[in-house]
Amino acid sequence: MKGFTLIETMIAVTILTLAVAGPLYTASRAIVAAETARDQLTASYLAQEGIEYVRAMRDNEYLAAYQAGGASVSSVAWTNFLTGGDAAAITQCRTSTCTLDPARAMGSGSGFSLQPCSGESCTPLYLANGIYTQQSDLGGAVRTPFTRTIQAVNVSASDERIVSTVSWSFHGNPYSVTITSHLTPWQ
Questions:
Q1: Which structural domain, as residue segments, surrounds residue 110?
Q2: How far apart, in whole angstroms, are the C-alpha atoms of residue 45 and residue 43?
Q3: DSSP letter at 61?
Q4: Cα separation of 12 and 21, whole Å?
Q5: How far is CA 146 from CA 49, 59, 78, 173, in A?
Q6: Structural domain includes residue 174
Q7: What does pTM read for this prediction?
């Protein structure tokens, strides 16, 4: 008997298909895992940037109060940071979530870097000139899957919890990274 029968040929094709499909499936899962890890790393950096930005706002209030002088520099700076009338106050981020756009002037409110989210959701980030921003109209801005929110929570008179969350969706699965830090007055 010469050649293969139909059953032998079908078995050989099935074995060959399984031998090729297994490594291809594994490779595709490895690529998805690498892309997810890349996004998680980016989200971690963006969330940490949110914490550091709010910390810089607190520090700027301390420097401004220090330059103005007086006996209670730290408490004046802390009060200005939390509820002051100037743009460096985080008052709006205590009552609702805020977005952070480091491409804008430091501060909180209309036209500044920290702005309350409009409606129920915050807008996604755009990548423009190497900066993650809320501004879609900057030259070459590309929409990213990331959305960053900042929220300030009053813990006590001398303790403010800052929560920075970055969320995104990948292949229909929602992901998020949250970093929390506590800020206190300087002294």
A1: 7-56+92-183
A2: 5
A3: H
A4: 14
A5: 13, 27, 31, 13
A6: yes
A7: 0.82
